[in-house]
From TrEMBL:
The protein's name: FAD-dependent urate hydroxylase
Cofactor (UniProt): FAD
Gene name of the encoded protein: hpxO
TM region positions: none
Pfam families (UniProt xref): FAD_binding_3
Native source species: Psychromonas aquatilis
Family: Belongs to the FAD-dependent urate hydroxylase family.
Keyword Flavoprotein attached: yes
Length: 384
């Protein structure tokens, strides 16, 4: 039995590892010639780390995961601590730590774990055909590949999704722009083992520790869609957006490199009705693109892959297994998309009164409610 895996990102490589555990041969195809991850880093919460352990890649998380031991929200104009607490109760409750990691390093190590020489790069999919016994992928370079089934992990702009759901769907702009990148740890910005978030005015500045003494940072600003990007003016633009914010934020803006800082207009899509059509299944962002506001995009793709393996462990009948995969994942993945959307709207002041209420709640927060919310998100995955 052979699977065609479309996409060599986090979802595709997780899926390949999961199917390999079930004795299924996989051919992996990636559209780009050189992997260039979108975004500097990724928050892999405990559910995603559990999935990586299950897939035999836990060592990657051990190597790349930052020492994020606590969490704090600060009022961005005054620097007043709104809430600050240890993440140990969460780790104790769910049995695994969260691991913020470099996205580029994560993808590279996952590809190396599979075997870089076994990934076919420069294979952009153009169309797909399936019959009762096989699926064929046709690529823009004129080549094709045939397998018994296909896992399409080709991202939020999936070329395969329309084949599965029968229509083209437009992405929905979430209303804000995110800038992100990496800098060396600087404790004048934030403690080196803490996830620190500055909030005010529906904006957010965050720093997380990752491996090798680095901070992953991101800055969010509600802005209209389609504004031009100019790296030459980025630092001054950010100073304008965050005028009056505390010195640690100003230090971060001074330290970031405009040439390597990513700018992303954040989108998601309306939840789709199905992830599967016959012998083709969508996985990760191709199935359920989400905003990053609860940090579950990568983790959800890892969960998909674990569920896919579980489905094939019960039966090697392809259409039965893919239907079981969809049954395990559709409600959970949809819930994460909608939960992230709801959190996005509160963080970024879609309703300013709701955002102000959240700020006031943070000032009274001991950490218990936040930890409970994180726990409920984590434990509903396929590995508990």
């Amino acid at each position: 039995m052979k699977a065609l895996i479309i996409g060599a990102g986090i979802g595709g490589m997780s899926a390949a590892a999961s199917l390999k555990q079930q004795g299924i041969e996989c051919e992996v195809f990636e559209a780009v010639k050189v992997m260039k991850p979108v975004g500097a880093a990724i928050s892999v919460w405990s559910n995603g780390v559990k999935c990586m352990n299950h897939l035999g890649m836990g060592y990657i998380m051990d190597k790349l995961g930052g020492p994020m031991l606590s969490m704090a929200y600060l009022e961005a104009k005054t620097g007043t601590v709104m809430t600050q607490f240890s993440l140990s109760p969460l780790i104790d409750a769910v049995g695994e730590r969260p691991c913020p990691v470099s996205r580029a390093d994560l993808q590279s190590m996952m590809i190396d774990d599979w075997g870089r020489e076994k990934v076919q790069f420069g294979k952009r999919i153009e169309r797909v055909e399936q019959d009762e016994s096989s699926v064929t992928a046709y690529f823009t370079d004129g080549t094709s590949a045939t397998g018994d089934f296909m896992i399409a992990a080709d991202g939020a702009n999936s070329a395969v999704r329309e084949t599965v759901i029968g229509k083209k769907i437009e992405r929905r702009y979430a209303g804000y722009v995110n800038w992100n990148g990496l800098i060396e740890v600087d404790e004048s910005i934030a403690p080196k083992q803490q996830w620190t978030i500055f909030v005010a005015e529906g904006k957010r500045v965050s720093v997380m520790p990752i491996a090798d003494n680095r901070f992953y940072f991101f800055l969010d600003v509600p802005l209209p869609l389609g504004l031009p990007e100019d790296r030459e003016t980025l630092r001054n633009d950010l100073k304008g957006y965050f005028e009056g914010w505390v010195e640690p934020v100003q230090t971060l803006i001074e330290k970031l490199d405009p040439m390597t800082t990513n700018r992303i207009e954040i989108h998601d899509v309306e939840p789709i009705d199905t992830f599967v059509k016959g012998r083709i299944a969508l996985l990760g962002d191709s199935a359920h693109p989400t905003t990053p506001d609860i940090g579950q995009g990568g983790g959800s793709a890892m969960e998909d892959s674990v569920a896919l393996g579980m489905a094939f462990s019960e039966t090697k009948d392809i259409e039965t297994a893919l239907a079981a995969y969809e049954s395990m994942r559709h409600e959970r993945a949809t819930d994460l998309v909608l939960k992230a959307r709801k959190r996005c709207d509160v963080i970024h002041a879609k309703d300013p009164a709701a955002t102000e209420t959240w700020y006031q709640e943070l000032k009274e927060e001991t950490g218990e409610n936040i930890i409970e919310g994180l726990k409920q998100t984590i434990v509903n995955g396929p590995l508990g």
